[in-house]
Design brief:
- The chain is an alpha/beta fold and 240 residues long.
- It is built from 9 helices and 9 strands.
- A 6-stranded parallel beta sheet has the order 3-2-1-7-8-9, with helices on both faces.
- A hairpin with a 5-residue loop joins strand 4 and strand 5.
- Helix 5 packs parallel to helix 9 and helix 7 runs parallel beside helix 8.
- The structure holds ligand BV8 and zinc ion.
């Protein structure tokens, strides 16, 4: 079984990764549904919504600032680095649900942020958008136009950025292999991407410490952590 799969992976030209909070867990960033959560204090399902933001923008901003500080102090782990390394051998795209920017910091050059980025802010009214470089003197921060700024992330109930979603669907539907890493596949429409890849005959691999509802439809579901399994997997793929 392994040799057929490693054979298929070695032959694959276009490899797409779909990643979630689990790939950043070993960088010290808590997952949403894991028991390691800082989330006992905050409930992401309640806070990552437009209503929560308009109800209490200061609280939502405090949550994002706390996460942003944690992310800025974190570094990519061997899982992120392995994916970036693979670009030397294959055409690699990363479709990530994460907003932490660690794939880019690890060196991946083709990253699609399906749910936005915690280091970008935008105005709730005008078209101002910018990278966050420092902390804010007051929360919520105000735009030059006088309205409040928000993190440039996709909240529950909000549509994904149209251009990013379209590219993600095309990449998922035309790849030779898809490697799904560290995601519970609980959130739509991101959780459709592995379905598109499977429908188009891609070799399907999953790396997750737990089982997911798609584990049984994978060609190979590795019950392992991203930082351990990905360097090994990339080693196999890159040694022809
Ligand atoms: C949309 C950004 C439509 C913000 C995020 C009912 C009511 C209301 C809405 C819905 C509903 N049913 C469905 C919906 C739609 C909703 C949705 O899917 N809800 C779910 C919860 C039921 N989706 C949306 O609202 C999306 N928008 O549908 O819009 C629309 C269309 C047109 C016009 C208008 C509207 C928007 C969804 C995006 C939400 N934003 N993030 C922020 O981060 O603050 S989602 C957020 O949660 C993350 O981005 C991520 O996507 C998700 C968490 O999922 P995971 O990444 O998978 O993380 P999780 O903790 O769940 O799992 C971690 C996994 O890693 C586990 O499996 C674990 O075993 C594993 N793991 C842990 N450690 C390791 C590991 N694996 C390997 N190694 C390790 N070391
Ligand atoms: Zn503005």
């Amino acid at each position: 079984m392994w040799d057929t799969i490693s054979d298929k992976l070695r032959k694959a030209e276009k490899i797409v990764f779909v990643t979630g909070a689990g790939i950043s867990q070993e960088s010290g960033i808590p997952t949403f549904r894991g028991k390691d959560g800082l989330w006992r204090k905050y409930d992401p399902m309640k806070l990552a919504t437009i209503d929560a933001f308009y109800e209490d923008p200061k609280l939502v901003w405090e949550w994002y600032e706390e996460r942003r500080q944690n992310i800025l102090n974190a570094s990519p782990n061997p899982g992120h680095v392995a994916i970036a390394e693979l670009e030397k051998y294959k055409k690699v795209s990363v479709l990530t649900q994460n907003i932490d920017g660690l794939h880019q910091r690890a060196g991946s050059s083709s990253v699609y942020e399906l749910h936005g980025s915690i280091i970008t802010i935008k105005c709730t009214i005008c078209d101002f958008k910018n990278k966050i470089t420092a902390g804010f003197s007051q929360l919520p921060p105000l735009c030059k136009c006088g309205n409040i700024l928000r993190p440039d992330v996709v909240w529950f109930g909000e549509a994904l950025p149209q251009d990013v979603w379209e590219s993600a669907m095309i990449l998922a539907s035309s790849c030779d292999a898809m490697i799904v890493v560290g995601t519970s596949l609980a959130v739509s429409p991101a959780n459709l991407l592995p379905v598109y890849a499977k429908q188009n005959g891609a070799t399907m691999i999953e790396v997750n410490v737990e089982q997911t509802h798609m584990s049984s439809s994978m060609d190979l579901s590795l019950r392992a952590s991203a930082a351990k399994a990905l360097p090994e997997l990339v080693g196999i793929i890159s040694h022809f």
